[in-house]
């Protein structure tokens, strides 16, 4: 199955951005408006993912998010993988925040 993909720099402002990384990665640095649902919890928390609008899925480099986006599309959501993940997000100088009180970075 082919998963739609977009470059981090092209994710629209105000988009629903789903971050599927683990807690430690999230704390180190994430997009300010992202929703955090670790990949391992995604099936159990599917109701938190909106239907009827694009969901942009991101991880560290794009592998986990591609799997998550494929599964979301399979169950009827409209998911798009963010190619290159948060590493590309950071390289594109998109906004990032940290929960650790330190300068945000991609863990």
UniProtKB/TrEMBL annotation:
SMART domains: RHOD. PROSITE patterns: RHODANESE_3. Keywords: Transferase. The keyword Transferase applies. PANTHER family: FAD-DEPENDENT OXIDOREDUCTASE, SULFURTRANSFERASE YTWF-RELATED. It holds the Pfam family Rhodanese. InterPro entries: GlpE_sulfurtransferase, Rhodanese-like_dom, Rhodanese-like_dom_sf. It comes from Nonomuraea endophytica. GO terms for molecular function: transferase activity. Residues 11-98 form the Rhodanese domain. This is Rhodanese-related sulfurtransferase.
């Amino acid at each position: 199955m082919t998963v739609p993909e977009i470059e981090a720099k092209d994710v629209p402002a105000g988009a629903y951005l789903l971050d599927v990384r683990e807690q430690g990665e999230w704390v180190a640095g994430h997009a300010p408006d992202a929703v955090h649902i670790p990949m391992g919890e995604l099936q159990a928390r599917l109701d938190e993912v909106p239907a009827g609008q694009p969901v942009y899925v991101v991880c560290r480099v794009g592998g986990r998010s591609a799997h998550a986006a494929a599964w979301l599309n399979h169950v009827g959501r409209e998911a798009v993988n963010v190619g290159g993940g948060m590493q590309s997000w950071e390289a594109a100088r998109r906004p990032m925040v940290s929960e650790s009180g330190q300068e945000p970075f991609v863990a």
